[in-house]
Write a structure and sequence with these properties.
single chain; alpha+beta; 2 domains; 5-stranded mixed barrel; two-stranded antiparallel ribbon; 7 strands; about 20% strand; HDIG_dom; HD/PDEase_dom; TraI domain-containing protein; Unchr_helicase_relaxase_TraI
Length: about 325
């Protein structure tokens, strides 16, 4: 490792910001000077930063995925050398954009991740944006949400599949709503998106941070965890948009595939999310059924039978 103290004299720009701490390790330069090598992450990507332990003390009680504020300079080598590193203040965290702190590095499906961030930050409802942050930016939720499969042996059964499926359901639900009810208020459209996005959030209780099934996966149905996963956000909505809070509770608990409570659906949004959920699952399974065989005839995934008709050459283009 080259001497970072010398490299730091060649400066190109100032570095400052609030991030998640996603990695750290002690390294030494050629002069045996100890540095703390840090990985600072957000929704845009990562920064690798070096902290000279002989010049700057490390604050206590900063753990994995904690919010930190760091500042320093960027060397010509491309690394950042910090002169400040501390736990972020509450005001600094509150000033971040919606889902800005989600570490992109943890998501196995980066294009889908970018779609989530872009849509979430485009929501016009401040209260729904705050709700999403309170649900998805919690340390105990975010890694599982980004890494978990959509199911263990069924649809979207790969790392990042839960995010892929959730975003498909959210987008398709809104598409159906706009097609059938184009005059629906924007706030309700955004509530439909949020409802679809979090319809399977209970699965983050049944997988660990690496997307592996845990004890809850064997002992509980994931849908019983949905309201629990959203409780902190729903408490906020109860104080600011109580009818939207009740709408989301209804969407996640009325009678539909994946919801076991049995309450009849009382609004069309629930039907859109139900149908989008089934369509997303079936489309993924149908693609898998024909992945390793002829593009016509019958294919099977588990007990599910799929069929693709034989088409003429002209019709297939």
């Amino acid at each position: 490792m080259k001497r970072l103290k010398k490299a730091s004299t060649h400066l190109s720009r100032i570095f400052t910001g609030t991030y998640r701490l996603t990695g750290r390790v002690v390294v030494f330069d050629d002069a045996k000077t100890p540095f703390l090598k840090l990985r600072l992450s957000d929704c845009a990507g990562d920064h690798i930063a070096m902290l000279n332990l002989e010049k700057t003390s490390v604050p206590e009680r900063i753990g994995h995925l904690d919010f930190v504020t760091a500042s320093g300079v960027k060397c010509l080598s491309g690394q950042f050398v910090l002169d400040e590193f501390r736990k972020a203040h509450r005001e600094e965290v509150a000033s971040l954009d919606t889902l800005q702190s989600l570490p992109r590095v943890y998501c196995p499906v980066p294009e889908t991740f970018d779609g989530l961030i872009g849509t979430a930050q485009s929501l016009t409802s401040h209260h729904l944006r705050t709700f999403l942050s309170r649900v998805l930016e919690r340390k105990e939720r975010l890694e599982a949400f980004l890494n978990a499969p959509g199911s263990r042996n069924y649809h979207h059964a790969y790392p990042g599949g839960l995010l892929q499926h959730s975003l498909e359901v959210a987008n398709h639900s809104v598409a159906m709503l706009r097609l059938n009810e184009p005059t629906m208020p924007r706030l309700m459209q955004e509530a439909c998106f949020v409802g679809g996005l979090l319809h399977d959030i209970g699965k983050t209780y049944t997988y660990d941070s690496k997307g592996k099934p845990n004890a809850a996966w064997k002992l509980c149905s994931h849908d019983v965890f949905t309201l629990e996963a959203c409780a902190y956000g729903l408490a906020y909505l109860d104080a600011h948009e109580p009818d939207i809070a009740m709408t989301l509770r209804h969407l996640w608990t009325c009678a539909s595939p994946g919801s076991r409570y049995g309450q009849p659906a009382a609004m069309t949004l629930a039907r859109y999310i139900r149908d989008a959920d089934g369509q997303s699952a079936m489309a993924d399974n149908q693609q898998r059924a024909f992945r390793h065989q002829s593009s016509k005839g019958f294919g099977r995934i588990g007990q599910n039978l799929f069929w693709q008709p034989q088409l003429s050459t002209a019709a297939s283009h």
